[in-house]
Amino acid sequence: MSFDHIVAAEKVAAVAATNAERVDRDSTFPQEALEVARETGLLGLLSSQRRGGRGLGLRAACEVVERVARECGSTAMVLTMHYCGASAIEAHGNDAERQAIARGEHLATLAFSEAGSRSHFWAPVGSAEPSGGGVALTATKSWVTSATHADVYVWSSRGLGGGDGCTLWQVPAGADGLRTHGGFDGLGLRGNDSLPVKATGALVDLDSCMGKDGEGLAIMLGVVLPVFSLLSAAGSIGFMEAAVVATCRHATSTRHQHLGSSLADLPTIRAYIARIRIDTDKTRALWMDAIAAVEAGREDATLRVLESKAATGEAATAVLDTAMRVCGGAAFRREVGVERRFRDARAATVMAPTTDQLYDFIGRILCGMDLFD
Ligand SMILES: Cc1cc2nc3c(=O)[nH]c(=O)nc-3n(C[C@H](O)[C@H](O)[C@H](O)COP(=O)(O)OP(=O)(O)OC[C@H]3O[C@@H](n4cnc5c(N)ncnc54)[C@H](O)[C@@H]3O)c2cc1C
């Protein structure tokens, strides 16, 4: 039977919708929705068919994450980081791990951000030292989504033995010497299980090196950045779509009884609703063009990818802020369906590359400069 990722995404979205309030309120990992993703084959969406995956591309992953984000930001975030890790492993991991992901047996994530270099993921300060026949990793990773639920981390370090550049490693989450810290009690994406992970001489095999030693930045920029940026944008678009629906529903169903009119009868309210629809559509159009640019290998693909993460992250933050205003004091209550997305949407602007870093990168490209000094 042929695989329809839209049908599968609808199944995940249905479970995510049922559990979203609880996931957010209790900071619970969205395990049930992830199980549906696993059963329907969505965890192996980007893996090659040869290895048992679905063999679909980034556009399909974008569609899945956007649909799920309308219902539950935490579930969308976990899928986003899985697809980022899965893409890197598909391109540069070992065969056993590729197959485990393709079959939906393993959940992947990225362990890039560090306490030392913070959002500057391109400059890890953690080390990788030869040890016996293997490699000992030492680092304090500051945020790892799905930290206690993932099976495999795509891990960045300095070059082997203090060498130049950055190197990526495929690290089993259960490796000796790895420790997660605390629980996640955040403003938004509260179910995403994003925790610090400390490695103290965590031992991995030498063949866990992804690509060549020192090639990590090239993989980050060439493989991971487009996937992360476009999926982050997918999440932001999903939040905006949900905001438009919730805001229209509230405005048309809420009445000023003494005037005999609804909120939607106020021109100001209608104008705000129009503006959030326009912002959603404008940024969606840019995002769709970025996906098309990547698929066609267009010259402006990198620029479009960076633009769409910046534009959608900022737009979602503004759109959800407007939705809070339109829905008034009522929006402070969970049942209106806006405040959770208002909190969730804010994360996109600070996830690396942050919006301000993106503005710098985009400006550098436009001025013909290198991305990094
Ligand atoms: C919910 C959530 C989940 C996450 N999941 C993961 C994950 O799975 N894996 C992972 O590796 N990371 C993850 N991160 C981390 C994320 O990618 C960023 O690294 C992190 O949010 C940066 O926060 P910080 O306080 O370290 O930022 P800082 O680096 O301290 O930045 C603070 C401010 O300075 C600005 N700034 C910094 N450098 C520049 C610059 N060069 N130009 C202009 N402005 C600059 C930033 O834009 C920001 O506004 C997650 C973050 C969040 C919030």
Description of the structure:
The radius of gyration is 21 Å and the shape is globular. The protein has a four-stranded mixed β-sheet with strand order 1-4-5-8. A four-stranded antiparallel β-sheet has the order 2-3-7-6, with no helix packed on it. Strands 9-10 form a two-stranded antiparallel ribbon. Helix 1 (5-26) crosses helix 3 (58-69), helix 3 (58-69) runs antiparallel to helix 4 and helix 8 (301-326) packs antiparallel against helix 11 (355-366). It is of the alpha+beta class. It has eleven helices and ten strands. The mean pLDDT is 97. The chain has three domains: 5-106, Butyryl-Coa Dehydrogenase, subunit A, domain 1; 110-214, Beta Barrel (Butyryl-CoA Dehydrogenase, subunit A, domain 2), CATH 2.40.110; 217-366, Butyryl-CoA Dehydrogenase, subunit A, domain 3.
